[in-house]
Structure of ABC-type D-xylose/L-arabinose transporter:
Amino acid sequence: MGKLDIRNLRKVFEDDGGSIVAVDDLNIDIEDGEFLIFVGPSGCGKSTTLRCIAGLESATSGQIILDDTDITNKPPTDRDIAMVFQNYALYPHMTARDNIGFGLKMSTDMEKDEIRERVEQTAEMMGIEDLLDKKPGELSGGQQQRVALGRAIVREPSVFLMDEPLSNLDAKLRTTMRTELQDLQQQLGITTIYVTHDQTEAMTMGDRIAILNDGELQQLGTPLECYYEPTNRFVAGFIGSPSMNFFEVEYADGSLIHETFRYDLSRETSEELSVREGPLTLGVRPESIELASAGDTNAIEVPVVVTEPMGETTYVYVDIGDQQYTVTVGGDRIVEPGSTLHVVFPEDKMHLFDPDTGESLK
Ligand code: ATP
């Protein structure tokens, strides 16, 4: 089993310059067998949270409960949790075989033969049977990461913690390892928390994503919930690539008024918003913006500054007022810098936020 409850977790670092709140009252329930992704900007507290769960860092307050046992103050070796690091953290003087078997040798009274068998089974699962007698220095980055994963798997822990395990690999290997890791996690059914900076990993690998900012949980949901129903402006801007476009507008008389355009809303949306006359933040994803059809009264004419062909799509950077925004168009459409586009923001794909709190209103 591996049901993990993080309750009111708080971690404050004290140093000469004062105190830094790295994790602020974090509450997350992680289901047995779940694959949970932690994402957020640099310094938001992802690694610190992981290290508190692993026992490598002590919590300032709060609790970490694994299957009804409070493990908050247990030493790392008594937690039944295995961690995989970005830099692999293998012992350089030991062979892959000894690296994988080391934890079993040190923390169990397992017989030598059984350890050997478990190491070989794990190596087979990771596709590294032929590398067992090599030392880390003789292995590529991808092979070293497989050994590091093998070392975690061989212990059959209740929980895996992975801190950006693929970030040192080249783009192609990363893609292969991403799917392999997902398959492996499903096959083993071990509860996994995975820290990443990478949008694609966040959107595709996990059952749910926990988005952190400044040590606080911003949203916990499936990737599609976080993409389509962001709880606030931060999540809306963080999830999705290229990022959502934001416009500061005024809402009055059924219209959103920007310094350069006016958008007349449908009666239903204006009724929903009727109590909110005044400033609002409008959010529109680049991929939601459409090219306007003739006579569309909500169309905006925008000058094209730069284009970035990506293959299937092209990112078009346009000026609206004194800011630059992104529009995604089909890759087969020729758009020249210096030309103009007529675009519309489909109302059903608009997001509206409170400009003061950032909270989502629609
Ligand atoms: P990154 O994505 O860059 O790895 P992160 O989200 O994992 O960042 P943490 O490493 O958890 O962020 O850091 C959270 C905050 O705590 C940061 O402000 C960081 O400077 C601070 N911090 C982390 N470890 C320590 C420490 N040992 N002493 C003092 N401050 C620390």
Observations:
- The chain is about 25% helix and 35% strand.
- The two ends are 39 Å apart (CA to CA).
